Amino acid sequence: MSLSSLQTKLKAGAMSVVLAVASFSSLAAHPNLVITQSDVVKMRGALDSQGYFSERYHSLKAQVDKEIAFPIVVPVPKDGGGGYTHERHKKNYQLMYRAGIIYQLSQQQKYANYVRDMLLEYATLYPSLDVHPKRKVKSQNPGKLFWQSLNEAMWLVYTIQAYDLVHDALTDQQTNIIEQQLLRPVALFLSQGQPTTFNKVHNHGTWATAGVGMAGYVMNEPEWVEKALYDLDKSGKGGFLKQLDMLFSPQGYYNEGPYYQRFALLPFVTFAQAIAHNEPQRKIAEHRDGVLLKAIDTTIQLSYNGLFFPINDAIKSKGIDTIELVHGVTVAYSLTNDTGYLDIAKQQGQIILSGDGLKVAQALDKGLATPYTFKSVAFGDGSDGKEGALVIMRSQLDGDQALLFKPAAQGLGHGHFDKLTWQFYDKGEEIVSDYGAARFLNVEAKFGGRYLPENNSYAKQTVAHNTVVVDETSHFNGDVEVGNKNAPTLNFFETSKYGTVSSGEISTAYKGVELERTLALVNLKELNSTVALDLFSVVADKAHQLDLPLHYKGQLIDTNFKLKANTKQLSALGDKNGYQHLWLKAGSTPKQGLAKVSWLNDNGRFYTSTSLVNGDESFLFTQIGATDPNFNLRNEHGFIRRVSGTKQHQFISVLEPHGEYNPSKEYTLMAQSRVTNLKHSQQGEMVLVELEIAKKHYLIAINNATLASKKSFKYQHQSYSLNGRLGVYLMNNI
C-alpha cells in the first residue's frame, strides 16, 4: 500500500469515528437501544386499552412484583450450566431487563431502584472474581460469572439493556460505579480479554460483539461499536458484519442448523435494532439484501408442528415459541407488515414489550393475522449458498407432512457426520427420526448440563443417522475440519403438482466412494395420500461393506420376512464409530423381492418401509443403549440394511403412511401395507419407478439430466411426456 493511500485510509477511519461520536452525542438521552424514548411514549399510551399489549404488561408486572419482593441474591459463581449459581445469575439478568421495562412503562421508581441495587451488587462482586472454577479450559474460553464466556456475553446483552432503561433514574455517582466497576470490565473482558472468541465467526462471537457493541452505544464508546462491527483491529476480518456475511447463506440459512439459528437470532436482531436506532445511516436492515429479515423467516420455515428440525447438535424440544424467535417475528412484522407473521406471533403466545411489540399486539387486536405459509424449499448452505442445501419437502394431501433432506455443509463444530440423511414427519409427529444432541441442557446432575460424551461417540457418528455408512466408519473419518472443507452438491430441487423431488451427491465423505441420493415426496392424488421415494446409489473403486440405517419412532408391528431375534443375550453391533452403542436385537436376509418393515407411531398411524432387494441385503434390527453405563442415551429403535463385499449398490425403497389405530374407540383400519409391487429401471438419465399400491398402478419418473428440459419416453409400450424433474402417471393398463 502506498503512503498516500494509507493516509487516505487512516483519514477515512478517523472520520468514521468522528461521525460515530457525533451521532452518539446526539442521542444522549436513554433508552436508546431496542426500546427508544418514542417507543416508551406510545407504549404508555396503550396501557389503558384492553388488548394483547396491556395484558402482557400487567402479566409481566405481576411476575416482576413477585420477584422483587425477595432479597437480591448475587452469589459467588461456582456451578456449571444448570447449577444454582449459574441459574441465579441467568435469572438475575432476565429480571433486571424485565424490571427496567416495567420502570419505563409504569414510571414507578421502585423498579429502577431494584435494577440499580442489583447492578451495584454486581459492581461489588465482579472486580473480585477470577475465571470461573468450572471452566472448560481445553474447549472454550471461560467466563467469570459463568462457566463459559458465551453466557457472560448473554448476561451483558440483557444487562446493558436493563441499565439503558434505568440510566436516567441513577445519580452520576451510581452510574460511575456501575460503569467503571462492572459494565466496562465485562465489555473489556469479552473483547480485549478474549480476542479469539470476539473475532470468531461463530455464535459465541455474535453474542460477544452484540453485548459489547450495545454497551458502546449506551456508554458513549464509539470505538467499542466499531470493533464490534469490524473486529478488534477493525480490519473487517471478524465482527458482527462479517458474521452476517459468513454465517448465513443468501437465503438466510444459518450454517450450524435450525437449533443454533434460533439461538444466534436474538443477538443478531437485538444489536441490529440498536444500530438502526443509533446509526440509521448504516442501513443495517438492508445489509446483504436484507439477509437478517430472510434469516428470521427461514428460522420459521425450519420447523414442523412448532418444533425445529433437529439436525446437528439440536435439543429436540426447542420450537418457534423460543424467546429468540419471538423477538425475531416481532421485528419481521414491524419491518414488513406481513400478516402471516401475526399467525406465528399468535402461536407463540408472547408479546414483546417494545415499540415493535406494540405494533404486533395492536394488529392482533384487530384480527389481522392470516395463515403463515410453510413451503417446500431448498435453502442453499454456505455464505455463497453453494455448499449444498438443506431441503424441505411438504405436502398437505393427507395430513401435514414434511420430509427433510440434508445434502448440506458440515455446520462447524456443532455439525454431525450425516451427509445426505433424511427425516420424515406426518400428522404432527416424527416418523423417520434423527437423534439430535446427546445432552440434558442445564441439568447439572447429568454431566453438568453439557454435551454428554455420547454426543461424540454416538449422536455425531454417521450410523446414528439415516444415510450410508461405509465399512463402519463415519463420514470424513469423523474429522470436523475435513468435513467443513467438503460439502455435498445439490444436483436439483423441484416442487410441482406431482410433489417435490431433490437429488444430492458427495464424493469426499469416503475416499474412492461416490454417494448419490434422490428423495421425492410424491403425491398420489387418486388415493389422497403420499409416499416418500428413496433412491440411494453407491459406487466405489473397491469392495466395501455398506450400511444404510433407518431410525424410526414407534412400535415395530410386522415384517414380511422371518426374524432371528436375540432374546436371551444381546451384544453391541460393533466397537467404535457409534456401533458400540447399538444393541443387535434381531437379523434376517430377506429373499429377492420386496422386504417390508412396518411400525405404529404415536400419532395412531402405520408406516411401512418397502425395500426392493436382490437377496443380498441383511436387515439388522437395533436398539440404542449398548456401552452406555450411565444410561445417557435414549433407547430408540432402527434397522440397518447391509450389503458386504461390493463396489456398487443401489438402495431402493418407498415409505408409505397408511391406516389408523384408535385405542380409545377400539378400532384399527388398514394396518397392512398397500404396496404390492415395486420396480426400478433407467432410460438414460430418466429414472423410472413402477409402484403398485392399493390396486392403483403408478409410474413415477425422475429426470436426472443436468437441465430439466421437456422429455418424451416410452414405458411398456406407452408414451409419456415429462416437463420438469418429477412426473407421476396412473398407468392405464390396470
From TrEMBL:
The record, for SUPFAM superfamilies, names:
Chondroitin AC/alginate lyase
Domain (Alginate lyase): residue spans on this chain: 72-301
Q: Which domain of life is it from?
A: Bacteria
> What Pfam families has UniProt attached to this entry?
Alginate_lyase, Hepar_II_III_C
All copies of domain Heparinase II/III-like C-terminal, residue ranges: 383-585
Q: Which InterPro entries match?
A: Alginate_lyase_dom (IPR008397), Chondroitin_lyas (IPR008929), Hepar_II_III_C (IPR012480)
Record keywords: Lyase, Periplasm, Signal
Q: Which residues form the signal peptide?
A: 1-28
Q: Subcellular location, in the record's words?
A: Periplasm
A GO term from the CC aspect = periplasmic space
GO molecular-function terms, A-Z = lyase activity
* Name assigned to this protein: Alginate lyase
